[in-house]
Amino acid sequence: MDFGNPIDFTGRVAIVTGGTKGIGAAIAEAFLAAGADVLVCGRSTPATLPGSGGRRCAFRATDVRDPAAAAALVDTAVARFGRLDVLVNNAGGSPAADAATASPRFVEKIVALNLLAPFYVAQAANRVMQGQDEGGCVINIGSVAARTPQPGTAAYTAAKAGLLGLTRALALEWAPRVRVNHITTGLIRTEGAAEVYGEDGGAAVAGVVPMRRMAAPDDVAHACLYLASGLAAYVNGADLAVHGGGELPARYLAAKTPQDPFSSP
Questions:
Q1: How far is 67 from 121, CA to CA, in rounded Å?
Q2: SS3 state of residue 81
Q3: Which residue in 165, 182, 193, 213 has its CB near the most CB atoms, within 10 A?
Q4: Cα–Cα distance between 90 and 220 in angstroms, integer?
């Protein structure tokens, strides 16, 4: 069986929301390296755009929480490149907040960014992709928080759980022309890791992951390439876990020595 080169995206076009830094930049660079034309967005213009092999992403300043701005983002990609094959809904995140005191405005902003914005951009992308002979695909970047919340993440957890449900619903409605899939991410080492995981950048936290390390942004990017490629032509409504096997349960860690939580009893 000849698979050719299923990771060749030459002539294809991708949008990566939140694609100017961190995980989003790695995803954008992966698609560039695979030959795609890539449009990234953020709320402010970065000093440097993601690039690969002498090519750089196009950029549009966009607040994806605004339905009109989300639609304009897709229109920009089509006007510039003539089509749209891949949408990666990567923009998201949340600072920690006590659920008992989080303001209505805070909750609304977190839900808007992590759930409503992906819906708005996906709607606009779908309108384009449904009219293309080869359709297209949408990839939603989710979080383990959807299933295993941590203190201080109530609004974020609810939004990410909703994103997983949205993925499955859109996969039912938009197939067969447009595939919609979800990636559950876990602990990821980015430039902001120290703020989230401690001053060691997550080295201690990585000890509770079966793979014995936090994910690198490229791990998520490679999963996106797979889901967008012909290798995943029959993958729709899936949730691909890119979390190194998850995390050891707290009750197990409590009974183990902190030096080697993976050692046998």
A1: 7
A2: helix
A3: 182
A4: 10
Residue 153, CB-side half-sphere exposure with 13 Å CA sphere: 19
Exactly one of 120, 156, 234, 252 is catalytic; which is it? Answer: 156
Helices (H), the chain: 22-33, 67-81, 104-111, 117-129, 154-174, 193-197, 217-228, 250-254
Question: Letter for the amino acid at 41?
Answer: C
Q: Model confidence over 68-113: pLDDT tens digits?
A: 999 999 999 999 999 999 999 999 999 999 999 999 999 999 999 9
The yes-or-no answer on residue 156 being catalytic is: yes
Answer for the pair 171, 179: CB distance below 8 angstroms, yes or no. Answer: yes
Residue type present at position 26: A
Rounded to whole angstroms, the Cα distance separating 95 from 109 reads: 11
Record the tokens describing residue 252, joined without a space: 């197990």
User: What is the rounded distance in angstroms from the CA atom of residue 123 to the CA atom of residue 129?
Assistant: 10
pLDDT at 19 > cutoff 80: yes
